[in-house]
Amino acid sequence: MPVWLRNVLALFLILAFSASFYYFFIRPYAYRWKPCGGQKEYGVCMPCCYDVHGIDVSHYQGRIDWEELFAQNQETDFPIEFIFMKATEGATLGDDTFQKNFALAHKYGFIRGAYHFFSPKTDALKQAEFFIKTVTLRKGDLPPVLDVELTGRKSKSELQKSLKIWLDRVEAHYKVKPILYTSHKFKTKYLNDPSFDVYPYWIAHYYVDSVKYAGKWYFWQHTDVGSVKGIKEEVDLNVFNGTLEDLEALTIK
To answer: Is 181:147 a contact under the CB 8 Å cutoff?
Structure first.
């Protein structure tokens, strides 16, 4: 092979690799490195203009120093008002930090919520019963949350049918419509049926300046790399689309 051709091929491979690396590893997260046009807190640029902020946690965050977390609220312009905690996954997997965190969130005056990570390959009714058995919600708590991120290779109609079984059973038990958590893309692709628009929508949409979803939404999980005092690991940050009074109105009566 001529030297010039070998050099051209080498240059082509370098350019192709660089373009692929940028497309898959840099471009989706470019928002992290953009200049912060607003106020920065919790290690990230906070979205404008929301008054009510919160986090969500699971066993991935490890042991939480609730006293330090509470004290932080006295020092910031973006106090944490609400906390969602993972309670269950599938029909048998409980989060081993849930009960302690759920109790301590109430003790320190946070508005608390519990969520279930849906497993498409597991019987939906069994999942609902497992959540109900695990989670006791009281006055002032947020409605139960269904976290939907996977299809489990189910068809769109099969997935929707399974989700409705969980949602209907849980609503019948707690007497309140559950919150539906999923990403912007997942919602528009798999849950665009009007029957799912009746649930309070919690949207996961990272590295954007604002929510582009055209429908009604209540919560926005805007980053997964927040740094919060009292929590050693990175944590998801959220905002509520309304006032604190609106959030309290959403809680169980």
So the answer is: yes
